[in-house]
Amino acid sequence: MLLMVCVRLCLLSFLGGVLAHPFVPGPAARPHSLDRASKKREYSTTGCSSEKEVAITAPTKNIFQSLTDREYVQVTEFLHQQKELNLTAVVNSTSWDNVIVTLDLLQPNKTDALTYLEGYGPVPARYARATLQFNSQLQPYIQEYVVGPLPIKNGLTRYEELNYIFTSGHGRTKVYNADGEAIATFNLKVGTEIKDITKRLLNGTATGADDDNLLIAGSDPLIHSGDRIYQWNEFYSAHSGEFFSETILPSSLQFKVDITGRDPSKWEVVGWYYDGQYWPTTAAFRKGVKTLTRRPGPNLDGSWTSTDQQGGKLPRDQLYPPISVQPDGPRFGVDREQNYIEWMDFSFFISNHKETGLQLHDIRYKGERLIYEFGLQEALAHYASQDPLHASSAYLDTSYGIGTSQWNLVDGFDCPSHATYLNTTFYISETTHVHPNSICLFEYDAGYPIQRHLTSTYVSATKNIVFTVRSVSTVGNYDYLFEYSFHYDGSITVTVRASGYIQGAFWSGDGDYGFHIHDNLSGSMHDHVINFKLDLDIKGRKNSLLKTEFVPISQVYPWSDGQSINTMKVNRSYISNEDDSKITWAKNGVAAYAVVNKDKLNKFGEAPGYHIFPNSGSTAHLTVQSSSALGQSANWANHNLYALQHHDTEPKSAYAFNSHDPHHPAVDFAKFFNGESLDQEDIVLYFNLGMHHLPNTADLPNTVTTTAVSSMMIAPQNYFPGDLSRRTIHQARLTYNEKSIVTDKKTFGTKQPTCAYDMNKSAPDLSTFVGEIEIPKFPWNPSGSLQTNPGG
């Protein structure tokens, strides 16, 4: 049995030479043509629609998307030519070699970008951001470099350390798990030494043998105590069927390892835990096992972990459910080369990145910029438990890769069958990976009107059509659905939904940390906190943060005959500086916040802006205060909303490798706050989505997206002269007389399709699922592309 089957708990990553994938390897890789990597449906023009994609041309280059294939090759070769770096090709490397971890575009400075986007300057010079890991020493470390300008030119291109975007002052992070394979081997050695006990307690073994039925997974992040490095590990039952359910099959048997240094002969087991009891040594554990009065046994796989249909079928469920169609074809345009999209009067660019996945840029309405940048920064899952492994677990998911975890979307299920699909590409370990059809674009009818009103003589209603950009990232046991939606009224929502297997803990009779949800399974409590950056530019870069608050008052009015009237009023104030901008949502939702421009009042004297507020589901910040596991690595998680003055030296609230040294992170969000003014400055918002998740029986086998959802909306506030949704023709007004007979019907030019619709167009295409396409970059082999299963 493979040690690291589908369990994100395992800290071993590609940095240590072992990649913990949420899937077993697929079949042997086969040659693949990129020609069919992106799904573009086209049908005959008979019937309602040709479904032909609307191709458009972006007004400018997409200066935000990652490196081109040629740039990846050039930068890789350039770095290998720098003898002082002493790099080894990844395909030939060991855990003691220096390697290239990843390459991406170093995002342009905002001033340079806006100068180009507004037509006043040249395209910003392109620079690569190179993440290198130096393993050829006793203390391995990651160092970020900047390489450029691109393309590579002899005598012009240079490389240097990338330090200015890190609050620590340097882009260097110590790595304590570089010897991932050695750690895995050590843990299997421990499993072998106590296999007599695991057979007795768990009826299984984890020794590295083919007939193992247990596996071992470790806590993340590693535990730093003084100058020592520790990790808790737990034995899990291996799945016995088709479903990778290990994270709900804990055994409670855990051991703590001191893995300080790089010499495995000096590593040692320094503690054992089982079913609420602790022993400081293996000898004490062996002795204590003999006197155990309770031996509950492990959680075992079975039909309860299956996600297939089971149980009695629902009434009338044999009938095909409603579906959405686009009878006249897509109503949005796409420039695939530039990843540029237009829908109604919205336009924007998208980019995709290994750590953070989908990002939106230069979002405009009728050509006027609303948002410079909008995208995920980090996703945290922080656990709590009476057992040491879960008490030590706080996952920062960009370290695993939100972008690397975006896979082919399931047509008709992840997205409507009429959706348009885009590919994503990223670079890791000297190979580019193409994930076909991993972003989808589509319109849908929300099923309720965006506007409606009825009177004694008429009723009016307007369709609520929404345009959505969606991706799904499977990070270990959890699947995150990320989507950005655009609305007729000029508002934008970002939504995160979660599904997949929970990470359960062993039930030892204590309900303080979760419900008892299966035989020996506790629904281990945890917080999901998902951080986003939102850089609004309201009629320019100079903005302020307005707070409006409903407050109860008792007031005497000229008309109240001297009596106090108990009522309420609105208080307006501005958040004047960064130190006052760490915001927790007000009780009862009485306070609201908006980015406004005080220098460009509308004709009524009000400051135009966009306000931000929770939309659906729950929002959350971290419950734990001064987390022992996180140290200073996730200070962005402590409140709901933040406002900061923009600086090119502070491009992100988080860093993908903060979890390697959480008490000394390269990016400490708390250091962004230094009292700077927020009065008519270039303001950047950071906000958190998420939920406090206390899993119950409804989370088995998988959590469902109906309850695991969090959403934020930004909407115009005194920005436009009225409701923008009045511009759509897809509305109706019915006038009726005193006898309630309709005398007039206004449909404002809407033409109802009357053609026959071919239902085959709406049938999900489930035969084209592609895992990923890998293209080696060093040595460069453009004809050596391979198609593999996800994680294969």
Automatic annotation (TrEMBL):
Q: Which residues are in the Copper amine oxidase N2-terminal domain?
A: 75-151
Tell me a GO cellular component. Answer: plasma membrane
Q: Kindly state which keywords UniProt assigns to this record, in alphabetical order.
A: Copper, Metal-binding, Oxidoreductase, Signal, TPQ
Where would one find the signal peptide in this protein?
A: 1-20
* Native organism: Fusarium piperis
- In Swiss-Prot or TrEMBL terms, this protein is called Amine oxidase
Annotated Gene3D superfamilies: 3.10.450.40, Copper amine oxidase, catalytic domain
InterPro entries (alphabetical): Cu_amine_oxidase, Cu_amine_oxidase_C, Cu_amine_oxidase_C_sf, Cu_amine_oxidase_N-reg, Cu_amine_oxidase_N2, DUF1965
> Which EC number(s) does UniProt give?
1.4.3.-
Q: Which residues form the Copper amine oxidase catalytic domain?
A: 324-723
Modification 2',4',5'-topaquinone occurs at: Y478
- One Pfam short name: Cu_amine_oxid
Per the record, the similarity remark reads: Belongs to the copper/topaquinone oxidase family.
Residue ranges of the region described as Disordered: 296-320
Q: Which GO terms describe its molecular function?
A: copper ion binding; primary methylamine oxidase activity; quinone binding
Q: What modifications follow translation? A: Topaquinone (TPQ) is generated by copper-dependent autoxidation of a specific tyrosyl residue.
Q: How is the cofactor bound?
A: Contains 1 topaquinone per subunit.
